[in-house]
Amino acid sequence: MFELNLKKVVLSATAVTALSAGAAAAQEACTNYTVADGDTMATIAIAAYGTSNYQPIFNANRNIITNPNALEPGLVLALPCEDGSLPNGQSAQELIAAEEQRAASVKRSNVYAPPIKMVAGNGWEPFTSEALGGGGIMTRLATTSLQRAGNSRDYSVSFVDDWSSHLDTLLPLGAFDISIAWTVPDCTNRTYEWSSETEARCTQFVASVPVYDIVGGFFTLPESDYASATKFEDFEGSTICRMSGWSMVVLEEVGLNRENTNVVQPNSARECLDAVLTGTADVAAFEVDLFASTMNDMGLTSTDLVENPYVSTLSSMSFLAHRTNPFAREYIAMMNKGLNEMRQSGEWYAIISDTLREQNEKLNAASN
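== LysM domain/BON superfamily protein ==
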């Protein structure tokens, strides 16, 4: 399975060293920045925002960043403003309001169609959470897509926190039409042995176009050898913590699986970080923005845990419908149509940045 978290929460040892050496010292939020030799996504984020959470920069520059671990010197990056807007651009709130007004003026069909039943879960801030406006980034993108590009479908959203039940039970039984949102593997890639999970994602479900690309990191103790690992193979033999219900697909695609690693799966990111701190796990592997917010919640700093600066994963999230649903392809096609229009209008990025602003305000309030 997107963090304008501008608080000073997670400074990696590598990033601090780079900054003290003078690298990445000229970045400012709400400007364009030219990548210099030695810059990393984390050091750029720290210099501009005071946090190593670089997902917002990645979001704003997704069309030009192919590998967040290998920035080319000379690349010009747009560093989002604190309100989430891009330099010299319309604010997220203004763009969303304009798109909502435009959509409201579109004549709706008088033909009744039943609401599309969608299911999400809590504990995945800022993507899906009842504590955030509209249910978080993914939920807002899903519901808005059904009101764009000529769509006018009513919907309902329920939160079921047992994530594994979404795909194992709720969608196959028809209790819900769409689940928000899941990692979808490259189903053309058979260079590795598929797990039953990957097999199911590729054969039992209809997936939307990629909704959001998430950068995942590997988090460990500062003194651990895994903090300086330079390739995925270096994690073979380790104990990796990944939360229950979180897909293993993203790790399998880079060669890490249950056969060459020991996987522990508690219920939360906090428990995963606790596992690393207590030695139950060597590494925690999940989203960089979730790491930043969890570190903040736990009152931890870079003296406690760090992100490996050399390896990361990139996974595409999609909305899923079960193939046994007779309307699966119709519903996914509607969402695809709306998502494509939202990307063209800029509303896709505006929704993401607006929710990240809200999440950041909550983090600020919690620490004061």
